[in-house]
Design the sequence.
DNA sequence: GTCTATAGACTGATAGAC
DNA sequence: GTCTATCAGTCTATAGAC
């Protein structure tokens, strides 16, 4: 609307975006450390060197801060994540992606804490996290299906693919949590072992193992 | 010390323990839904039909309630968990243990939420969760080592065993989270696929895969 | 043992000066 | 845009009556 031209020298609200980015960065740390419920607007504002009123002014509400944080997390992970690879190569990159988190504890801690918190339907980020997981699983499934179509791995039914991508996701999340609790955990190494072995299994008709296990377990 | 004999008809504080158990059960639900930071003493007391003062009186503080909850969770999982099996059979039971959680969402949600929250060193349950994971990993490692000694699986180095049990733990935690976010997730089935396939891998000298992957990855 | 009443601190959010 | 001042509500915890 009516923006004062004097406050911005070149781009639109030049200093505004920097301030906003800094506020979000601090909010990631605070929400990562104390979760959404435990992280207060005042704590974020104090650590950023502004008043809590200014923070609310920027984002409208505490929930607005959370949404900005989640979108920033989305942006960073999507842009870091492999637009240039597909099929099996997508999975082969996952250990490196995981290893990169070792130098950026805050973002991993944020996501782990919020994802667990948001498992409750009443949590403000519940829908966001649910959709995020659905999208992530679908992306992985697409790459695995592509590997099947290319003949890189033995055929898999959609149900088998679903289990495979859920296991991959579970390993990533679970190893991340273990590293947060014990920094001596070798995230990249552990994930690498899983991915390497799993791809080897996909190559042979190891799908038979899956099929036997799933059908034999069901007593109905 | 000086307990009124009139208030207990037979056992020691007969009604007291029932009340206490009920309060803990409610606290598990509330902390599971909102985490420790987000779950208030008042919410627990209100849902249990007592005043918040009475609840504090029972457990001394909010942190005391958390500790009682964690010990109860410990008790339930330890007693449910397989004192009668060891070696590979211990791993074979894990899918059934996971499947049992499908009928008891509260306890799984509690642990998932608290574990993630407690990844922050300042969290009151941080030490508890850390030790819990260390103990759990050590137990799994002991059973896997036992399987090695019994000749049920090919030899594994301690470092390889460490990765194996971390991956198993990661799958359990990660699949549990996915089920919390999407109840159509087949927890028992997914874990069963992983366990069955992994044990098959342990049988052959699949350890070579592990060794190749771990050494090839390190650029040092 | 459980209650009511209350202390004392912190919460998210708003109003208005500059 | 950021501040100070302030709101009404909630939090944990304590004191004291019954």
Sequence:
């Amino acid at each position: 609307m009516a923006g004062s031209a004097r406050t911005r020298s070149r781009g639109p609200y030049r200093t505004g975006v920097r301030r906003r980015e800094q506020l979000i960065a601090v909010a990631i740390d605070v929400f990562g450390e104390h979760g959404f419920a435990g992280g207060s607007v005042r704590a974020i504002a104090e650590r950023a060197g502004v008043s809590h009123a200014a923070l609310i002014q920027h984002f409208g509400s505490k929930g607005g801060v959370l949404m900005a944080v989640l979108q920033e997390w989305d942006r960073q992970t999507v842009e870091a994540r492999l637009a240039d690879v597909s099929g099996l190569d997508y999975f082969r990159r996952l250990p490196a992606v995981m290893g990169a988190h070792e130098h950026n504890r805050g973002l991993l801690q944020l996501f782990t804490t919020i994802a667990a918190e948001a498992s409750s339907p009443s949590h403000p980020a519940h829908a966001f996290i649910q959709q995020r997981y659905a999208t992530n699983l679908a992306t992985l499934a697409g790459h695995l299906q592509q590997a099947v179509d290319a003949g890189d791995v033995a055929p898999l039914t959609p149900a088998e693919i679903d289990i495979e991508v859920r296991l991959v996701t579970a390993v990533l999340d679970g190893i991340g949590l273990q590293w947060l609790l014990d920094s001596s955990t070798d995230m990249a190494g552990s994930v690498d072992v899983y991915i390497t072995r799993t791809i080897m299994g996909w190559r042979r008709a190891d799908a038979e193992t899956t099929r036997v296990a799933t059908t034999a377990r069901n007593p109905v």
In short: Residues 1-8 of chain A have pLDDT under 50 and may be disordered. Chain A touches chain B through 56 residues (CB under 8 Å).
